[in-house]
Design brief:
alpha+beta
């Protein structure tokens, strides 16, 4: 984007557990007044984002927290409002956030001048019958089917676009977006996927069946999963934050959502540097990085 950006309404979704003394919110409010002094400011609790109606449009939503806060806000606003997300890291990893708290002045200057892009990040949606109703949930990172602690392995039967792909036994199955490829999927042996690619990754968790490996699918694929765990319990988990208990007769259907998460990126964004510094931190850094 280019030009002088006018910000009329700015929301701040803050994770209160990471800013208990209001230290960081104070810094953000101060900088907003400096760069966008005429903007109306809406303060939100990230834990309560699902309950906010967003009746009026927003020009920007600032997420003050860590990766988990961005995940919950991205799910909470989608289907209600389309707005670019500026993630300010005050958490631990900060892989999804756009900037660190020390960079807010520089970031607001770029936003004011229109020197940024709003990159669309794919979301997944999960449909399955639940208590005689159609349930729909979104995920920015991943949708995971997994067994309860100490229960037996799950028997999975997977269909892709109506065709049987495979059966396997294991602890779980991760259905991931490219954004989520650096999260649980990576920990379970899945590949890194550049975040603007349009694909879905299936990664088994501790498969007991030999020959089962991660697979990368076209984003238009529809994945249907039957997960049977006998007398044990299985759950569908969304971004590691929301879980719904399954029964053996439920068919889980996962596909690309119509909605997107819009993440603000600046001209100095370097995905590979972020990989090195946040995840591959055993890699040698060269002078100039």
């Amino acid at each position: 984007m280019q030009g002088n950006e006018v910000m009329k309404r700015i929301a701040i979704a803050r994770n209160p557990s990471k800013d208990k003394d209001n230290k960081f919110i104070g810094k953000v409010l101060e900088k907003i007044k400096e760069y966008f002094n005429e903007a109306e400011i809406i303060l939100l609790n990230s834990y309560e984002i699902d309950d906010y109606s967003f009746a009026s449009p927003l020009d920007l939503i600032i997420v003050l927290g860590g990766d988990g806060t961005i995940l919950s806000v991205a799910r909470g606003i989608n289907g209600k409002i389309k707005v670019p997300i500026l993630g300010i890291n005050i958490g631990n990893l900060g892989f999804l956030t756009s900037i660190e708290i020390s960079e807010i002045g520089k970031a607001f200057e770029k936003i004011k001048n229109g020197d940024y892009i709003s990159e669309e990040r794919m979301l997944l949606t999960c449909d399955f019958p639940l208590e005689n109703e159609k349930d729909k949930s979104l995920a920015l990172n991943d949708i995971v089917i997994l067994r309860e602690t100490l229960s037996r392995m799950i028997n999975f039967e997977i269909f892709i676009d109506g065709k049987r792909y495979c059966n396997f036994k294991g602890d779980g199955l991760i259905i991931s977006t490219p954004t989520g490829s650096t999260a649980y999927s990576f920990a379970a042996g899945g590949p890194f996927i550049y975040p603007d690619l349009d694909v879905i990754i299936l990664t088994p968790i501790c498969p007991h069946t030999q020959g089962i490996h991660p697979i990368v699918l076209n984003s238009h694929s529809v994945i249907e999963i039957k997960a049977e765990n006998g007398k044990g319990e299985a759950f569908v988990n969304f971004d590691g934050q929301k879980a719904i208990k399954l029964t053996d007769d439920i068919l889980v259907r996962v596909k690309k959502a119509d909605e997107y998460a819009n993440i603000i990126l600046f001209d100095d964004y370097d995905y590979y540097k972020i990989l090195r510094s946040k995840i591959l931190n055993n890699c040698r850094e060269y002078e100039g990085d």
